[in-house]
Amino acid sequence: MNGVCDPNEWKPPLIAVIGMGIGTHCLGTLASDWIGASQILAGGARHLELVSGYSGEKLPLKSPLSECLDEIDRASKNKRVAVLCSGDPLFFGIGTTLAERFGKERILVIPNITSIQALCSRARESWDSIETVSFHGREGKAGIDRLTGAIAGGRKVAVLTDPSHSPQWIAAELIKSGLSECRLIVGEDLGASFERVRSFSPSEAAEVVFSPLNVILVKPAERGAASGGSDEPGCIFGFDEDEFERESGMITKMEVRAVVLASLQLGPGQVLWDIGAATGSVSIEAGRIARPDRIFAVEINESRYAKLIKNLNKFGASGVEAFCSRASEAIPAFADPDRVFIGGSGDDLDAILETVSRRLLPGGRVVQTVVLLQTLEKVSAFWKSRGFEFSVVQIQVNRSVRTANDLRLEALNPVFIVSAWRKS
After folding, report:
1. Model's pTM, two decimal places?
2. What topology does CATH give the domain 241-422?
């Protein structure tokens, strides 16, 4: 690791990457000394304007960035180059790009306060459990899906906007997703003498024109606020069947669902297929606890599909892409999966298993619920024939039922849970 701390010992090709915080008043002695010791100062036009008294050469960063990086590479071989950026260089900043381009050993990073930290301090909000969504250079759908999924799950989200994804646009998307009871705290021009920090409902924010330099903290509605005092859907995980629109019996029971989600070993950024989704309970809870990149849910029955859509809207699960189709006809268009849950298949099982076995990504897992012994035998034989490891767990649930003066236990149908994964 590079241990240079004294700018007087700075020798090319080391590149200093300096966070400006939210303005020059955030620059401490260390950052100022490194700027003063540099011979070339690279950065965006706004950052370079903030160091008007700098006597060295200035290199504006502009599109395409690759050409600027080539110029920094050439210059830093013989001269001391410092790169300025907003906030902390390694928090959604150019520091990550520079480390990837030049190697970590060649850069020295001087961090600073981020706009998110500044906004949270202004709003007196803790930020130790905040999720961050950045729209800089990213597709709006992916960002808004992450945002709405986190808000629906009861988490606070910091949003880094860009000109195409303004607070007004984000507010409108929240309204479309049924999250009109959340609050947006918008910080504009933080660090400037004319900075503003204001709180809005989505409907209010959708009608306001904000400064282009802004950051947002989105807070979920307090539990029960969206339904006039009920507790829907306040928790993150473990919803009773009654929380979902459903046909009688056509839902993965809560106890089974918990084991299924644990067996899937979900992680953020993954692609999940939910085949035979019915109510969508597995997709909805998977999205709330693991923040996958994409979830594809397919249900062939039109009536159940209609209830699936209602549940997705109720829980704000806009990240779930739902399809009413025969599974074998829908999944060829899906992105390759990291995780697959098969809750129902009918006479489509052979085609589903064959496709899943071919397209499952390295390290992937398949989890299937099975009721019939003949299906269990068929599924187990399939994974064995394809060289997969697999395990079988039987879930026998007994629920208490109230009698006149006591409780008795009533058994639910036993369920087999089959998990399969490639041999390492």
Report:
1. 0.60
2. Rossmann fold (3.40.50)
